[in-house]
Amino acid sequence: VQLQASGGGLVQAGGSLRLSCAASGGTFSNYLMGWFRQAPGKEREFVAHITATGGSTSYADSVKGRFTISRGSVKNTVFMQMNDLKPEDTAVYYCAARLIGRSRYEGWGQGTLVTVSS
């Protein structure tokens, strides 16, 4: 599966952004979809995921209550609505896919940069 993240940009603290992830080359409904991020000088970290059916979501404690992951009505897309952004949310955000029954994520793509100014 190939993934392309978009929607990043520069925003002031307290602002909002909506990230999109477009998938191709696989059966989208067979994949759990995740968002990860990597801040400068830090390791990549989990942000959120949504199951293949969209029935269950999970979030990192640092974003819980502020970020919402969803599977779009538009075919093969996943979104992440990010509200009340903080400077510590500044990072390159990546979407990735995990085939049902597998433990490894794939299709990372180039990511999209989110910069939150204070």
Secondary structure blueprint with pairings:
Elements: E1 2-6, E2 9-12, E3 17-24, E4 31-38, E5 45-50, E6 57-59, E7 67-71, E8 77-82, E9 91-99, E10 112-117
Parallel strand pairs: 2-10
Antiparallel strand pairs: 1-3, 3-8, 4-5, 4-9, 5-6, 7-8, 9-10
Explain the overall architecture.
By secondary structure, the protein is an all-beta fold. It is built from no helices and ten strands. It has strands spanning about 1-5, 10, 15-25, 30-40, 45-50, 55-60, 65-70, 75-80, 90-100, 110-115. The strands form two sheets. A six-stranded mixed sheet has the order 2-10-9-4-5-6, with no helix packed on it. A four-stranded antiparallel sheet has the order 1-3-8-7, with no helix packed on it. Strand 7 (about 65-70) and strand 8 (about 75-80) form a beta hairpin. The radius of gyration is 13 Å and the shape is globular. The model has no long low-confidence stretch (mean pLDDT about 95).
Give a short synopsis of this structure.
This protein is mainly beta. 0% of the residues lie in helices and 51% in strands.
**Count of β-strands:** 10
Q: Evaluate the radius of gyration.
A: 13 Å
The tally of helices reads 0
- Which range best describes the helical content: under 10%, 10-25%, 25-40%, 40-55%, 55-70% or over 70%? under 10%
Across the major sheet, the strand order is 2-10-9-4-5-6
* End-to-end C-alpha gap: 37 Å
- Hey, roughly how much beta strand do the residues contain? over 45%
Shape estimate: globular
Given as residue ranges, the uncertain stretches (5+ residues, pLDDT < 50) are none
Order of helices and strands: EEEEEEEEEE
Class by SSE composition = mainly beta
Mean pLDDT: 94
Q: What about the largest sheet?
A: 6 strands, mixed
- The protein's oligomeric status is single chain
